[in-house]
Amino acid sequence: MAKGTILLSVTGFDPATWCAELEKAAPDRKVVTEPAGANDPDIEYAVVWKQRRGVLNGLPNLKAIFSIGAGVDHIFAEDELPDVPIVRAIADDLTERMSEYVAWQVLDHHRKGPLYREQQARRLWHEDIMQPAARDVTVGILGYGTLGRDAGRKLRTLGFEVVGWSRREKTGEKIDVFTGDNGLNQFLAVADIVVCLLPLTPATRGILSARLFDRMKRRGPLGAPILINAGRGGLQKEADIIAALEDGRLGAVSLDVFETEPLPEDSRLWNHPRVTITPHAAATSMPHALVPPMIEQMEAHDRGEPLRNVVDREAGY
User: Is 110 a catalytic residue?
Assistant: First the structure.
């Protein structure tokens, strides 16, 4: 008996590569990039990233939607969304790539990478001897979920103090994890470097703004606090970031995501001396790593087993 069809609808990725991996992992399933009509009865699963608007509507036998990234805000952007489970991409490869990025940016700021690159451009030989030890620096992870927990564990191995913040209470953690609005104030009061890995939801949109910067730690071993955002561009207000850099509320920032992507050529962020920019490259979704777990979940779901990493629709992540 033939198994249900998989619909692949992605932008920003090469669909041919994803199709090839899906067909390799599920040779007994058909993979299509468009439904056969508005009410295609053969499609049982959808694999998406910034999918074509409306492509998920009217599929009578759709069982689940899989995001090929950790974020699912692109799915909730639909005007109408089928009432089926939505599954976030959780894979060791994706988690490890994000932890690599976080460790890289934390260490770069900690060991004065921006300063020394600026000095190199000026052919200036000068050691900044004000170099605190990692144990004297507290890294706060804003959004302490699967990705944040792994990044925090690796930063602790490097010697940093680590704290976390989560909208939901966490138990059994080896670090202090704050929750709620009061917890956010406590978190910001101790973090020298804030790493944002929050999902984008109505509650978090624009959270990296003047209101948050005003509550950050004023001075620490690295001077003014440092912000690293590898979550979503919609979490930040870039005009507020620039203003905070100019008036000293922020010492430096690393941004992998932006309000508009690609980042417009006329953005002031490009040439700001205390801004590090990467092109949404912190944790690239790799088909060979993410497709097999998806297919395993589809097969298990067909056998009646529950899906893992299902999104809470009310929370938005």
Answer: no
